[in-house]
């Protein structure tokens, strides 16, 4: 498969692996109706808004959310040359640093802006892939500046066979008179993690397409084409318009959608139409009740989900004219993305949260269908509180001036607001400068050791905190330098004997993380125990 080469790729190729793990720190003053604020992490039923570098925030989410996110939507910088976005990833290469600082922020005069954009996207896409569920899907908004580059980047990271569609969003309906070609579309690239596991939500129906102009007792309907792709002899026959006598055959390279016998039965059932005036080619009447049972295909051109102008009006309706945002997305666009890709209890992630449309869409959709979807927003800019989170607060509590009754009353729900703590590293643990909470460190150790998250992490007897099908995990730790320097932090004979007894009863091996031990590893190995010394084996994979 062809791959995309760009300046800096060799330096950032494995950068997502070296990003330090920074714990999430809850901020109760900026949260809204939080179910579990005050703990180091939000509860399992929490919505999250994270203010911080999305590269670090994505890494912080891995221990809890790896392989759990059903729908990811991101709207990264389009790299038009007018945005002046900054590349500030801490890549440990002098050449890379020199190159990045030479021309920053990235603007229209930077001849290497495409390379820098790709360097920015590469590690983030790798981390997003780790967060995506096996049956999940990622949607990425982009315009023509980087669409071709992004497509090749996604083919390389997610796999060419996991490409689903390039959805074209009709985002602008007014004409731009100052240019020769008026831009009226954006792209939304869709990829899955494992194509056999994914399917669009078959229960999704755009009911606005159905109507009942002839008062058919069978209910609302839509007129579908009678023809289908490819040529099949048994599905190629003449159809005569009874009103005009004109004979129709399938268009070139196509056949009728069903056999002549079924067609004649459909005529008797009054399901064959010939246009509004009865003088056109044949169409098939499909009822909303049938569509609800079967679901519908997703078209690649979306022109019924609002425009950027509509999105701006939405923000004005929420904030008034005193608050502005350059490139908002309409709620209807994100609602459709979520509706076709999630079930009622799924998690939706937006790593370039902007004005907070994704959270608004999740809450609105939950209000409509009684779902319990959760959102995770990440925003690195200073407006994360004033715009991103504030919009979500207002739609939760209600917007008095809103025309929509549900939004006026409030969509309900809540979220916990987070910032990023200091990195968890060996030096911080040795000096006591950065001692994370027990659950936070256990979360990270479990992910580093297994590549996935563990459920219900909690410090129990002998500092046991969780298990997999093959391993038991122990973390002899308290966030205190006094404890870590004392004998209480050691794996001693009595504790090892109790752990070995549990190993025997479960048939599992044990990994014990501690600052010190009073036994040899040779002796521990015979007991089914592997000792992992803190802080040097934080990143050890089982």
Tell me, rounded to a whole number, the average pLDDT.
Answer: 87
CATH topology of the largest domain: Rossmann fold
**Envelope shape:** globular
Query: At the fourth CATH level, what is the homologous superfamily of the largest domain?
Result: Vaccinia Virus protein VP39
Q: How many angstroms does the end-to-end distance come to?
A: 32 Å
What are the segments in which pLDDT stays under 50 over at least 5 consecutive residues? 37-44
Structural class: alpha/beta
Instruction: Please name the CATH architecture of the largest domain.
Output: 3-Layer(aba) Sandwich
- Rg calc: 28 Å
Structure in words:
This protein has 542 residues and is an alpha/beta fold. The protein folds into three domains: 9-203 and 300-420, Vaccinia Virus protein VP39 (Rossmann fold, 3-Layer(aba) Sandwich); 207-294, no CATH class; 426-533, no CATH class. The chain contains 18 helices and 23 strands. The chain has a ten-stranded mixed beta sheet with strand order 1-17-2-16-15-3-4-6-5-14, sandwiched between helices. Strand 18 and strand 19 (471-475) form a beta hairpin. It is globular. The two termini are 32 Å apart.
């Amino acid at each position: 498969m062809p791959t995309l080469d760009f300046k800096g790729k060799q330096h950032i190729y494995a950068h997502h692996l070296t990003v330090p793990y920074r714990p999430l720190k809850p901020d109760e003053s900026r949260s809204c109706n939080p179910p579990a604020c005050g703990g180091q992490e939000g509860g399992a039923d929490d919505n999250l808004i994270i203010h911080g570098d999305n590269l670090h925030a994505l890494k912080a989410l891995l221990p809890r959310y790896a392989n759990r996110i059903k729908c990811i939507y991101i709207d990264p910088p389009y790299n038009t040359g007018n945005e002046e976005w900054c590349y500030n990833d801490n890549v440990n290469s002098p050449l890379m640093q020199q190159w990045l600082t030479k021309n920053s922020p990235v603007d229209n005069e930077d001849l290497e802006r495409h390379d820098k954009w790709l360097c920015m996207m590469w590690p983030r896409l790798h981390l997003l892939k780790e967060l995506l569920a096996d049956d999940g899907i990622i949607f990425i908004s982009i315009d023509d500046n980087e669409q071709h580059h992004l497509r090749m980047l996604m083919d390389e990271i997610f796999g060419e066979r996991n490409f689903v569609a390039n959805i074209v969003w009709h985002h602008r309906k007014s004409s731009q008179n100052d240019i020769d070609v008026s831009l009226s579309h954006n792209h939304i690239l869709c990829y899955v993690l494992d194509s056999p596991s994914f399917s669009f939500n078959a229960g999704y129906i755009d009911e606005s397409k159905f109507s009942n102009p002839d008062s058919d007792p069978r209910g609302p309907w839509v007129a579908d084409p009678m023809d289908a792709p490819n040529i099949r002899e048994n599905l190629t026959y003449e159809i005569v318009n009874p009103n005009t006598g004109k004979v129709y055959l399938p268009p070139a390279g196509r056949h009728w959608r069903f056999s002549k016998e079924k067609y004649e039965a459909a005529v008797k059932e009054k399901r064959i139409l010939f246009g509004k005036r009865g003088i056109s080619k044949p169409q098939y009447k499909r009822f909303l009740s049938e569509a609800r049972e079967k679901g519908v295909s997703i078209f690649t051109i979306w022109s019924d989900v609002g425009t950027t102008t509509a999105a701006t009006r939405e923000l004005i309706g929420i904030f008034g004219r005193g608050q502005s945002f350059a490139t908002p997305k309409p709620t209807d666009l994100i609602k459709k993305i979520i509706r076709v890709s999630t079930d009622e209890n799924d998690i939706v992630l937006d790593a370039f949260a902007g004005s907070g449309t994704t959270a608004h869409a999740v809450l609105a959709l939950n209000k409509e269908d009684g779902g319990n979807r959760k959102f995770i927003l990440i925003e690195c800019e200073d407006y994360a509180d004033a715009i991103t989170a504030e919009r979500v607060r207002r739609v939760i509590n209600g917007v008095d001036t809103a025309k929509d009754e549900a939004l006026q009353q409030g969509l309900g729900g809540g979220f916990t607001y987070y910032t990023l703590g200091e990195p968890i590293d060996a030096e911080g643990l040795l000096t006591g400068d950065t001692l994370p909470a027990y659950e936070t460190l256990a979360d990270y150790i479990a992910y580093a050791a297994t590549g996935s998250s563990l459920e219900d992490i909690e410090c129990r007897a002998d500092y046991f905190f969780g298990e997999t099908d093959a391993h038991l995990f122990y973390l002899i730790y308290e966030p205190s330098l006094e404890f870590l320097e004392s004998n209480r932090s050691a794996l001693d004979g009595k504790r090892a004997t109790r752990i070995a007894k549990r190993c025997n009863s479960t048939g599992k091996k044990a990994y014990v993380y501690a600052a010190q031990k009073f036994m040899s590893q040779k002796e521990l190995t015979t007991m089914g125990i592997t000792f992992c010394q803190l802080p040097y084996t934080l990143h050890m994979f089982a």
